[in-house]
């Protein structure tokens, strides 16, 4: 076949000699890559069946590749340095070569059927049930004159009505899924591009440009987002693709460089997760500098693991920064705090959410299975009655014919209207569930095949209380081995903390009179029996415990409409921080590098964060190494579940007993 590209002004032809050398080299590289791709996918014409060719054409699996993405440019390359397939396409318009955004690369599709597969799939689903197949056989038998016992339409009519009603219900559910997908795909996000980029100078229905200094804020649909796009996401906005967090907008000395996200739509966890910006981009002076930073991101080959990511950020000054899970924003997560700038690394079928999603199938409820089983029992009973009536008539040569006629006459023992009533009831159940604002506000029925299953639930199994409650925690008791404090004696605990911190703000005061305070009522029986200067021991223990609670966490204080709020990945940590604030230790600032506290005496103490061990479901504990800025003393604090910490701390004879007492008192225990 001749190369038609030369005829239409391809750079290989003399008609494009006026193009710049940069454009020519880029286009020639694109053509070489396209030729190699076509050569690799071309199949020989001899020795290959047409069926094999069709399977290779329609079932060709997309090859997932690692990629290097340059921030603020159009360059997205694979491991071999070639342009990544499917991001941009080159077109010649009005004598000039320009890049145009490929549409639909990030579209999501939760549909069960297509226009061609709807009818066969629904029919197979309907006639997989025994009673539908039974009545189909009965209706077909009426076309045989020897077995005809009534009008054909008396059998075909009810069956057709049942099948059409079920198909209408499936079509209605499918239209709702299409509507939801369209709303998500057409949601507009803010895209940051350089103001001189020619690709965004055109006017289209789905794009509008807003000048913002050195960058343009472009409104782009979610389905048209491509790899390498730099997005600006606001609070409570869904992440449309897998991204790398580059910067928190408005970041300054008094704004944290971390952000919280909600991942309940990805992994089912209601706790917020902490994500941190890349160090090279978060240190920039202005937000718009991210587009001009000149860095690049290397992202590994897409895979299903949502708790793992390996990559590198290459800064313009040749510095290399490793990227981990803390630098990522996966698709379908929600920004819970602040406004962020991120760059897309995976879109569409390459995202973690889509790779972990299976093809939606047809759901069959328990009631359908029970009705199908009862229909089989009635079928056996029908055979028994028909055989008995045929035997009572006599064993004549046409015994089999009369047996079938009796069978057809008694076929109404299996009620076909039962299926119609069930489908109509499900539609009514779904309607009332979605419109019951008093008891079920915000309820959304995504499938009308299973609403009655909610009435058959006997037990609800949960691994934590936050799944079934409002997830609002409150600290009730504090046991430090020597004493037990609760809400009823919180004032005494605050007095002990005041004396423990003294006037120093960091170390316990050495000017405490042991007889100035009586703590005997709060001592355990063992500690009361061996009182060796208990005042000083309790004050030191209280100080260490309160500092550990105030430092070992990921809580970030913030201002929301003039009110002080706290943002954290878990409500447990907020409850702990609020408890220490009630006794006088206030968290003023928490960033990636420092923690600033105000002690009960009013002094401020700053701790430098040297290293942090994040909490994981495998370790079940977190740790942090800090250095007090004034005394330069380094401390290591560890916080975790009692089952893990019991094997780490120094052995004592009261730990297991007190944890058991608190557990029997229906309280979660933490060390």
Descriptive terms for the model:
671 residues; alpha+beta; seven-stranded antiparallel beta sheet; five-stranded antiparallel beta sheet; 17 helices; 26 strands; elongated; disordered N terminus
- Biggest sheet, strands in spatial order? 6-7-5-8-17-9-15
Counting H and I runs of at least 4 residues, what is the number of helices? 17
Instruction: Tell me how many strands there are.
Output: 26
Average pLDDT works out at 76
Q: Judging from the principal axes of the Cα atoms, what is the shape?
A: elongated
**What's the alpha carbon Rg, rounded to whole Å?**
35 Å
- Strand content bin: 15-25%
Biggest beta-sheet profile: 7 strands, antiparallel
Percentage of residues in helical conformation: 25-40%
Cα separation of the termini: 75 Å
Structural class category: alpha+beta
Q: What low-confidence regions span 5 or more consecutive residues with pLDDT below 50? A: 1-23, 36-48, 85-100, 197-213, 503-517, 519-532
Task: Describe the 3D structure.
- The protein has 671 residues and is an alpha+beta fold.
- The protein is built from 17 helices and 26 strands.
- It has a 7-stranded antiparallel sheet. Strands 2-1-12-13-14 form a 5-stranded antiparallel sheet, with no helix packed on it.
- Strand 20 and strand 21 form a beta hairpin.
- The radius of gyration is 35 Å and the shape is elongated.
């Amino acid at each position: 076949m001749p190369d038609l590209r030369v005829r239409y002004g391809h750079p290989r032809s003399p008609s494009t000699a006026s193009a710049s050398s940069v454009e020519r080299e880029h286009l020639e590289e694109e053509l070489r890559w396209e030729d190699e791709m076509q050569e690799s996918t071309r199949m020989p014409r001899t020795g290959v069946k047409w069926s094999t060719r069709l399977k290779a054409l329609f079932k060709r699996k997309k090859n997932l590749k690692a990629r290097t993405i340059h921030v603020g440019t159009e360059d997205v390359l694979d491991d071999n340095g070639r342009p990544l397939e499917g991001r941009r396409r080159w077109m010649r318009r009005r004598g000039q070569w320009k890049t145009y955004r490929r549409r639909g690369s990030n579209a999501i599709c939760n549909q069960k059927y297509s226009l061609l597969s709807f009818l066969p799939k629904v029919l197979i689903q309907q006639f997989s049930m025994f009673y539908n197949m039974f009545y189909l056989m009965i209706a077909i038998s009426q076309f045989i004159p020897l077995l005809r016992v009534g009008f054909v339409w008396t059998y075909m009519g009810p069956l057709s009505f049942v099948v059409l009603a079920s198909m209408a219900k499936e079509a209605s559910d499918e239209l709702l899924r299409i509507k939801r997908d369209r709303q998500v795909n057409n949601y507009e996000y803010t895209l940051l591009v350089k103001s001189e980029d020619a690709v965004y100078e055109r006017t289209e229905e789905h794009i509008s440009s807003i000048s913002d200094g050195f960058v343009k804020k472009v409104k782009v649909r979610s389905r048209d987002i491509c790899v390498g796009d730099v997005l600006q996401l606001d609070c409570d906005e869904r992440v449309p693709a897998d991204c790398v967090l580059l910067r928190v907008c408005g970041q300054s000395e008094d704004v944290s460089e971390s952000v919280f996200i909600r991942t309940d739509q990805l992994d089912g966890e209601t706790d917020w997760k902490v994500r941190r910006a890349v160090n090279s981009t978060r240190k920039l002076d202005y937000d718009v500098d991210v587009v001009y930073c000149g860095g690049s991101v290397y992202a590994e080959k897409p895979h299903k693991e949502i708790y793992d990511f390996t990559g590198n950020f290459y800064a313009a000054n040749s510095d290399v920064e490793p990227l981990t899970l803390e630098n990522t924003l996966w698709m379908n997560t929600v920004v819970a705090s602040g406004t962020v700038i991120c760059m897309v690394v995976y879109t569409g079928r390459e995202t973690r959410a889509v790779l972990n999603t299976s093809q939606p199938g047809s759901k069959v409820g328990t009631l359908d299975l029970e009705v199908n089983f009862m229909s089989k029992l009635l079928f056996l009973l029908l055979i028994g009655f028909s055989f008995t009536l045929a035997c009572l008539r006599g064993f004549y040569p046409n015994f089999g014919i009369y047996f079938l006629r009796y069978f057809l006459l008694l076929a109404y023992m299996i009620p076909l209207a039962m299926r119609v009533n069930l489908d109509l009831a499900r539609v009514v159940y779904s309607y009332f569930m979605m419109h019951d604002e008093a008891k079920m506000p915000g309820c959304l029925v995504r499938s009308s095949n299973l609403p009655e299953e909610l009435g058959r639930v006997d037990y609800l199994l949960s691994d934590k209380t936050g799944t079934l409650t409002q997830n609002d925690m409150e600290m009730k008791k504090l046991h430090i081995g020597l004493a037990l404090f609760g809400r009823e004696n919180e004032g005494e605990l605050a007095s002990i903390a005041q004396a423990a911190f003294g006037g120093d703000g960091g170390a316990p005061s050495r000017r405490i009179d042991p007889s100035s305070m009586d703590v005997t009522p709060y001592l355990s029986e063992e500690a009361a029996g061996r009182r060796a200067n208990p005042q000083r021991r309790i004050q030191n223990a209280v100080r260490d415990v309160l500092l550990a609670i105030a430092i070992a966490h990921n809580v970030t204080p913030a201002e929301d409409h003039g009110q002080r709020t706290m943002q954290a990945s878990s409500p447990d940590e907020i409850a702990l921080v609020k408890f220490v604030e009630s006794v006088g230790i206030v968290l003023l600032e928490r960033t990636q590098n420092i923690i600033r506290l105000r002690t009960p005496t009013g002094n401020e103490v700053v701790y430098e964060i040297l290293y942090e061990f994040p909490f994981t479901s495998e370790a079940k504990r977190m740790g942090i190494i800090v250095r007090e800025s004034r005394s330069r003393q380094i401390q290591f604090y560890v916080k975790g579940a009692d089952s893990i910490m019991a094997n780490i701390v120094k052995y004592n004879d009261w730990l297991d007993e007190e944890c058991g007492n608190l557990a029997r008192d229906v309280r979660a225990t933490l060390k």
